[in-house]
Amino acid sequence: MAYDRPWKSYGDQLALLQSRGLGVSDETAALDYLERVGYYRLSAYWYPFRQFEEVGRSHSGQPLTRATDRFVDDTQFVDAVRLYLFDKQLRLLMMDALERIEVALRVDLAHRLGERDTFAHLNKSLYHPSFVRGGRFERWAKRCRDLQNRSKEDFIKHYRQRHGDDLPIWVVVETWDFGAVSMLFAMMKVADQQAIATKYGVRDWLAFQSWLRSLNYLRNLCAHHSRLWNRNVVDQPQLPDAGVLSWCDAFIGRPELIARPFLLFAIARHLVRIVCPETRWHERLAEHLDRFPGQHSVCKLSVDDTGAPEHWKSWWV
User: Which Pfam families does UniProt cross-reference here (predicted)?
Assistant: First the structure.
């Protein structure tokens, strides 16, 4: 189908929203947000306030709905703006945690593998055979070479000038992104994965492996300024058995919570407290969640929409 929606000025965009029932108490401020943030970025935050209609039933009998163009009663433009600003600060807090986790993991991986081989990232024998077969190791190695070649860091230039292009793992690891670090962990032999997972208080190395993969997904959302607070998580983490990590028990058997981002916040909390034992990051995040914005709209949203389980504060701080 050919795209047939015409270009609209900022004023036309605002008028369209008002015609659909979105209240605007300050048109100057609303136009300013449309100009600086954009209609479609903000639309992710007024979407929950749209009216939904039933269009059928699923095979299991659950109602199927779709959003209409109309907003529920009393919805204000500022409701979406406040939600957008809350989500922006949430992403910044998560990026703070993810940086600490990623940097610590780089050190752990490089230190463990580098003891065996200065160029451990090039030595196939150090990794699980399932990743060596079928070209998976080569694809990962190519990605890492590309990241290394794109690096503009002075220390990379220094090593190349003095030692050539083959860099020791404890140097080259600093050019990798979270995805490359996560994949390196997944390629390691079980004993190595187990040792590092145990350092982070997780005896289940497969669960820990999935945590890193999911945190990379979270990192990409944050880095690209994507909506986070009520996101349906595509790359969902695994959990250890009940009773292994007490805080995980609140999520076990709750697919509706595992599919939401709060579990990733909780994983970040667990890891950051091990990386930085004196941190107050988790307290700052809890304080931010407590400031979830209120709404004029009769459609009331809350921190529960992040997938926060009941009584989460009892184990958070």
Answer: Abi_2
Neighbours of 131 (CB within 10 A): 20
**Residue 201 Ramachandran class (φ > 0 left, ψ -120 to 50 alpha, else beta):** left
Taking the C-alpha atoms of residue 88 and residue 293, their distance in angstroms, rounded to an integer, is: 13
> pLDDT (tens digit, 0 to 9) for every residue of the chain, 317 residues total?
777 789 999 999 999 999 999 999 999 999 999 999 999 999 999 999 999 999 888 888 888 989 999 999 999 999 999 999 999 999 999 999 999 999 999 999 999 999 999 999 999 999 999 888 878 899 998 988 888 888 877 777 777 777 767 789 999 999 999 999 999 999 999 999 999 999 999 999 999 999 999 999 999 999 999 999 999 999 999 999 999 999 999 999 999 999 999 999 999 999 999 999 999 999 999 999 999 999 999 999 999 999 999 999 999 98
- pTM > 0.90: yes
> Using CA atoms, how far apart are residues 308 and 232, in angstroms rounded to an integer?
13
Dihedral sign, CA of 88, 181, 172, 97?
positive
In whole angstroms, what is the distance from residue 261 CA to residue 233 CA?
6
What is the DSSP track for 98-135?
Answer: HHHHHHHHHHHHHHHHHTT-TTGGG-GGGB-HHHHGGG
